[in-house]
Structures are given as C-alpha cells and as structure tokens.
Input
Amino acid sequence: MTEIKRPVLFSGENPGMTLYVPGTEQVAAIASYWYCTDSPWGVGHALILWLPAGTTPPTVIGQGSILADNLDLAQILVKNLTRHFPEFQDVPLETLAYVDADCNHTYDGAYYRVACQTSDARIEMEWGEVLDRKQVIWPQFPAGKTAYDLTTVICPCRTGKIQINGKLMEGEVNIAQNAEGQFSSTAFLAFAETWIGPLNGEEGEES
Output
C-alpha cells in the first residue's frame, strides 16, 4: 500500500557526534552535520558545533558556531529540529553565531569526512568503522509545540574525531552493545533522512 506524506521539510543526511573527555562522562563536543539534497529553502550544508566551557580548551571559534553555506536553511534546521534533539537539550544554541562557510563532505564506505572553512577557521570531522546499519522510523518526533515524522538509516560508528585548524580535539566516542549484540554509539551516520512536517501546520516553537 502506497502512503504519500507532505510537507517535506528536509531530505538528505544528518550524522551526529558527541565526544567525551577521555575516561569521564563530561561532554567535550556535540556536533550535528546537515547535508540537504532538497528542501523548500534549497540545498546546502550546515555544521552545528558546541564546545562546552570548562571541558574544552579555548579555540578560535570559542564555544562553537553554526557554519553553513545556506544560512536561511541552517536557521530553519536549528530552529525547527536541531534544538529539539536529545543531545542538544541543554545547549544554548541561541548563543552560537551563524557563520558563512564553505562546507563539503566525502564518504568512501569506510570513513565519512566533513570540512567547513571560514575566513579564520577550518573545522574537520571524521566518522569511521561502521558497526551496524538500521532503519529508524520515528512518527511524531516531538519538536516543541509541533511534531515531525522522521525516517532515516542510522549507522553507529566506532570512531569519531574533530579537528580545529589542524589541532585534534581530545575526546572519545561512547559505544554500547545490548544483549542481542547490537551497537549504539555517540558517533553515527544518518543516511536517506527525511523529515515530514510540521504535522499540525505550526512552526516548531517551545512549549
């Protein structure tokens, strides 16, 4: 049976990464990378990077930035979706500056690499060693006063790295394995991702 859904907010890829200070549960970095192949706001790339004060040494981008080659699209993705992701619940995204950047990525089946270049900073990320591939279907993903239907293919990874101006950040990925032997990771790829909504016709504002 064919099911047709509208409106399509986003189609593309959305890998994420949370790194921890080695040997601790302290977050060293949280990142979400968007590669949009189609949306009402056009196509483009956006990297949302948060570096918590006190756990990350000072960098040229301070506590992070939102780097994008389509700023209108980036603002929609952050406002409607990213700020509602569980890993970003306590992150003050409104304090991060939107910065025009040249962003690109490559994937050879083994390593997914992202590079974003601004006038004074180069951010590079790498996901490696895919541990699993699974389709996730999440109806009514909660986003403030509204919701979205999400479908995606999640690939947890064994490794994750972030470099800022050539300097490798100190941080490690957390990996877990359930009783059935299935892996989860704080570094994951997300392919064939589609967000449908807002389902009640409202833009996703806070409750």
Helices lie at 71-80. The CA atoms of residues 59 and 138 lie 36 Å apart. The chain has one helix and 15 strands. The chain has one domain: 8-196.
